[in-house]
Write a structure and sequence with these properties.
Helix content is 74%, strand content 2%. It is mostly helical and 420 residues long. The longest helix has 28 residues, at 251-278. It comes from Deinococcus cavernae. GO terms for molecular function: transmembrane transporter activity. Residues 38-420 form the Major facilitator superfamily (MFS) profile domain.
């Protein structure tokens, strides 16, 4: 075992098996799918700073950007309630490719540290803009937060790269479990956040941005203690160009699945809180359904990750697609309880597509940043057009359109080829 000048620990795991797998993916097999035999346990101790930083980031998102549509409405722009999310996703789309390339050149730790620091700045700007009722400043903060998300959401690839291929689903699942912990901790602080808002003379949704900035700052400090672990041997040129990566069979369909899942999830997640607000839910009620959504997204990673490792990518895509469709079809039901069910199914469906697609792309690093960018583009378009569709045709029309689009990951399932 050796260490590079950037502090990356090289495990040497990749000697024969994964070099052959990369050659096969590039020349013969593309995205392959086969359960692998059990191996050593996850290095949770070494991965803990990475997991904990991601938990803090999820907590920051729970109390800030997720509720941005409500803030936009309070600023007198309810017809553009989806605009902050569109700005966030568009900014993330531009930054994801940049951070992906940066992390390939300079390492995951530097890229993640810079992303968390950028998020701290964005949250502060967003808080000031909302507090002072300056819509342009609030949107600037949202854009900066989006740029940060484009970077720190790639922490999942750092986790996957730290273990052999047959444990990457489990590594992603453990990351998700820590993320849901961060969300639930912040949900438990909904009343103190309301009190902080009162002290500051603003709403709890606005005060959440200040809390989010503090959490991202702590994540930036924490990630500096992480010692990156990679299965790649030093000196090996294993990364394809972006062009060649997307020519690899199965990579484009994987990117399609990830973009579809991300787009539908973000669209409904961003616009449902405003719908819940109109249905009479208070801040605690909205926080509860968001927590249920986060539970679906991350809380079952301990199960879905190893399940994808065991059964393969195809069942993950199929189950995820049908759950996303079910979430969209139940979203228009006029019931607080059904709204909660819909948000939970939305998170769980996204989880399965996300784990399957992320595991597949962990074998093709050059495609990761661009694929994330495509997901953010889909999310930005979804929230912008979704707000307009709701204004003109109502929320049910948007939900039914999402239900149809949710079936696109079935294409990825069909394109996934068993490994011979």
């Amino acid at each position: 075992m050796s260490r590079t000048k950037d502090g990356v620990v090289q495990s040497g795991v990749l000697r024969g098996t994964e070099l052959g797998e990369l050659f096969q993916a590039r020349h013969t097999g593309g995205v392959t799918d086969q359960p692998a035999p059990a191996s050593a346990a996850l290095p949770l101790g070494r991965l803990f700073p990475l997991y904990a930083a991601q938990a803090l980031a999820t907590g920051a998102t729970t109390v800030s950007t997720v509720l941005a549509s409500i803030i936009m409405g309070s600023l007198g722009n309810e017809a553009l309630a989806g605009l902050p999310s569109t700005v966030i996703q568009t900014s993330a789309a531009f930054s994801a490719s940049f951070f992906g390339a940066l992390m390939l050149r300079r390492g995951r730790r530097l890229g993640l540290t810079l992303a968390f620091m950028l998020g701290t700045l964005g949250a502060a700007l967003g808080f000031l803009g909302a507090k002072l009722h300056l819509t342009p400043l609030f949107l600037l903060g949202a854009a900066t937060m989006g740029a940060a998300q484009g970077g720190y959401q790639q922490a999942r690839y750092a986790a996957a790269e730290s273990v052999p291929d047959n444990k990457r689903g489990a590594a992603l699942g453990a990351l998700m479990l820590m993320s849901v912990a961060g969300s639930f901790v912040m949900t438990g602080f909904s009343r103190p956040i309301e009190q902080l808002g009162t002290v500051l003379g603003t709403t709890p949704e606005v005060a959440g941005w200040l809390i989010g900035g503090a959490l991202l700052g702590l994540a930036a400090v924490l990630i500096t203690t992480w010692q990156p672990l990679t299965t790649l041997q030093p000196g090996k040129k294993l990364n394809l160009s972006v062009r060649d990566a997307f020519r690899t069979p199965g990579v484009r369909s994987t990117a399609l699945a990830l973009a579809t899942g991300q787009g539908i999830m973000v669209t409904l997640m961003s616009l449902t809180p405003l719908r819940a607000h109109h249905m009479g839910m208070d801040h605690a009620g909205v926080a509860a359904i968001i927590s249920g959504h986060i539970l679906g997204m991350f809380g079952f990673g301990w199960f879905t990750g190893p399940l994808v490792d065991r059964l393969g990518l195809k069942p993950g895509y199929v189950a995820g697609a049908f759950l996303l469709a079910a979430a969209a079809l139940t979203a228009p039901i006029e019931s607080h309880a059904w709204l909660g069910v819909s948000m939970f199914l939305l998170g769980l469906g996204w989880n399965l597509v996300f784990v399957s697609g992320s595991k597949a792309l962990s074998r093709t690093p050059a495609a990761q940043g661009v694929s994330d960018s495509l997901g953010y583009v889909a999310s930005g378009l979804g929230t912008l057009l979704g707000g307009l569709i709701i204004a003109r045709a109502g929320f049910p029309a948007l939900a039914h359109l999402c239900a149809v689009l949710a079936l696109l990951p079935l294409i990825s399932a069909a394109r996934t080829r068993p490994r011979t």
